[in-house]
Design goal:
The protein has about 260 residues and is an all-alpha fold. Helix content is about 85%, strand content about 0%.
Length: about 260
């Protein structure tokens, strides 16, 4: 009975913090409309989100492209559709794999850092000190992080897409004798501009979600060092859950219908 009550209380606190994150997202939007942006903080956060996350994002996408090609190419060759391997990989990476996997990497690395850093500031009363200095924590801490994620995540997404395609091309050419020309021509025939646009839209949405959730969980941290650890873990889990849920609804909105002519 005690464990059940504790679980219900924990779930209630989670919903309260989720509501606080939604409200924070609205506040960030209105602050952006006022164009109150700390450029130095924003550039600093962009360097953290982008260059420092680049290596792990590229390695992840490269191996995902190679594994996807291994799983698909043999079956397609069996059915006489080897020339479509590049196109199928390009669609999978552009529409789903590249934006989602990049968001997962950023949520694990950057979202956790946001929650830990701001959570530590909260429990050590540095947030209160900002209020004493008449500095709005949303303008100074949250908005730069949201902007950094929304700007850098699409860049990481495009680079991950190119790396994934490169990995798939190497496997296709090296293991299945599918020439690079056939691979790239297939990708060109399958892809449309709308696919790239939707990939960028998803990346921007995921970036905003990760930043807002990480910052919100940090701002609502209580309980000292233990609370910081709990906030960091919960922020990452919540960010990943939000990415998967929002990805479903975005895909449902963007890709309804019977597909393109090339399919």
């Amino acid at each position: 009975m005690t464990n059940s009550s504790h679980s219900r209380r924990g779930l209630g606190i989670w919903f309260e913090r989720l509501l606080a994150a939604i409200l924070l997202g609205g506040q960030v939007f209105f602050h952006l409309l006022k164009t109150r942006i700390h450029r130095r903080n924003t550039l600093e956060q962009m360097s953290i989100v982008g260059p420092e996350s680049l290596t792990i994002a590229l390695v992840t996408s490269g191996f995902v492209g190679m594994v996807f090609t291994i799983q698909v190419a043999r079956e397609f060759i069996h059915f006489g559709a080897a020339s479509t391997v590049g196109g199928v990989l390009s669609l999978a990476l552009t529409r789903e794999l590249a934006p989602v996997l990049t968001a997962v990497v950023v949520a694990g690395r950057v979202g956790s850092a946001f929650a830990a850093e701001i959570g530590t500031m909260r429990v050590t009363e540095q947030i209160d000190a900002l209020y004493m200095l008449k500095t709005d924590p949303i303008d100074y801490l949250v908005v730069p992080r949201v902007l950094a994620c929304c700007i850098m995540l699409p860049v990481l997404n495009i680079l991950s897409l190119l790396t994934g395609m490169g990995g798939g091309l190497l496997i296709s050419d090296g293991l299945y004798d599918i020439s690079p020309q056939v691979f790239l021509t297939s990708a060109q025939n399958f892809l449309e501009l709308w696919d790239l646009v939707t990939s960028i839209i998803k990346s921007i949405a995921f970036g905003g979600l990760i930043a807002v959730i990480g910052c919100s969980w940090g701002l609502t941290t209580t309980g000292g060092a233990k609370g910081v650890g709990q906030s960091t873990t919960t922020a990452v889990v919540t960010s990943l859950l939000a990415v998967f849920v929002v990805n479903f609804f975005l895909s449902w909105l963007m890709f309804q219908g019977t597909g393109t002519a090339s399919l």
